[in-house]
UniProtKB/TrEMBL annotation:
Pfam families: NTP_transf_3. This is Nucleotidyltransferase family protein. SUPFAM superfamilies: Nucleotide-diphospho-sugar transferases. It comes from Mesorhizobium marinum. Residues 8-118 form the MobA-like NTP transferase domain. It comes from the Bacteria. The lineage of its organism: Bacteria, Pseudomonadati, Pseudomonadota, Alphaproteobacteria, Hyphomicrobiales. The keyword Transferase applies.
Length: 248
């Protein structure tokens, strides 16, 4: 898939409880970091990758997100309304499948973002790295992964170990592992038998591991997650550092 997926799912329906009191009045995807809403960091990356349609799911204070994305011109945004009940990561995708189509698509978390590496020969934007690495014959899911040294605001352990061919297994806390960096390409065929209701993507990660069809690509640049209000300043400092590295 040299040109990359043209559709994407943006997971934006979470409650953002740890971001209170900011999220008492706005949904977490609209929290601003370095002058840009978290949601826009992801949507801008998708637009730069050539994505034409992004499905954004909403639940908490959904009207604010609907109004916000209405001001965007690219990508075209389709709202998937989960105001009647949260469906978790995979359940939200299953609900949105009619708008996502039958071809592989990107998944992006709305509450994390990244700064692509720039300035070195061969550097490519991270979504382009995913598209270039995608191989439907071998993969059901391809994850973007970050090293602990690339992460700002991450308080957990690692998620996956990756072998020389890019195949993944659970890291089980191994400090030599990598973090799932909130972006992926997925083949929608894996959801063919899914029933409506809450479902976690972790179930599908584990099924793909068992089948030998979960792969990863280590990202370039910096990965940033903002879990609490006091993490915003750290995130903005990380953005400033990352952009300074890429400046001419």
């Amino acid at each position: 898939m040299t040109n990359g997926p043209k559709r994407a799912m943006v997971l934006a329906a979470g409650l953002g409880k740890r971001m209170r009191p900011i999220t008492d009045t706005i949904p977490k995807p609209l929290v601003r970091v370095a002058g840009r809403a978290l949601l826009d960091w992801g949507l801008d990356s998708l637009a730069d990758a050539g994505v034409e349609t992004a499905v954004v799911n909403v639940h908490y204070l959904p009207g604010q997100i609907v109004s916000h994305v209405a001001t965007r011109t690219a990508p075209r945004v389709v709202i998937s309304d989960e105001s009647g009940g949260l469906l978790d990561s995979a359940g939200g995708i299953v609900r949105a499948l009619p708008a996502l189509g039958t071809e592989p698509f990107y998944i992006v978390n709305a509450d994390t973002f990244w700064i692509d590496a720039e300035g070195s020969p061969g550097d490519a934007p991270n979504l382009a790295r995913l598209a270039l690495a995608w191989d439907a014959a071998r993969m059901d899911i391809l994850l973007m992964l970050a090293g602990l040294d690339q992460a700002t605001g991450h308080s957990g352990s690692t998620d996956f170990r990756m072998d020389a061919a890019g195949a993944l297994r659970r890291a089980k806390g191994d400090p030599a592992g990598l973090i799932y960096a909130g972006a992926a390409i997925v083949n929608p065929v894996i959801f063919a038998d899914a029933s409506p209701g809450p479902l976690s993507l972790n179930r599908y990660f584990d099924e793909a591991i068992t089948a030998g069809r979960l792969f990863g690509v280590r990202m370039g640049g910096s990965w940033i997650t903002v879990g609490t209000p006091d993490a915003i300043a750290l995130a903005e400092a990380a953005v400033e550092r990352a952009l300074a590295v890429g400046a001419p």
